[in-house]
Write a structure and sequence with these properties.
Helix content is 40%, strand content 27%. By secondary structure, the protein is an alpha+beta fold.
Length: 98
């Protein structure tokens, strides 16, 4: 998709266990359901806000392809991941997967 209506900004990276204690619990469960994933408290998630909206998107970070998956899912929504957020996620994933 060449036209992006919105931009996504990274809010935080945290464990599922931490996330389920917040107002994002529903978002985490929805994403897990969409991916047919069993929630594990030690799993890591990235929380993104669609800038200018109250929409929060949750993505699991579990392998080197996580950033590509996130960008692909956002692309389907017509959302572009902002540059700084992409770089932070890239560094986090590289460090985590070593």
């Amino acid at each position: 998709m060449d036209e992006y209506m919105h931009t996504a900004k990274l809010i935080t990276i945290l464990s599922v266990e931490e996330g389920l204690k917040t107002e994002l619990a529903h978002n985490i469960r929805v994403r897990a359901s969409l991916e047919n994933r069993v929630l594990k408290k030690e799993d890591t998630i990235a929380v993104l806000n669609i800038v200018g909206t109250t929409s929060y998107q949750v993505f699991f970070i579990d392998d080197r392809n996580s950033l590509d998956v996130i960008k692909s899912e956002l692309d389907k929504m017509g959302v572009l991941l902002n540059y700084d957020s992409e770089k932070i996620l890239q560094r986090y994933i590289q460090k985590k997967m070593k």
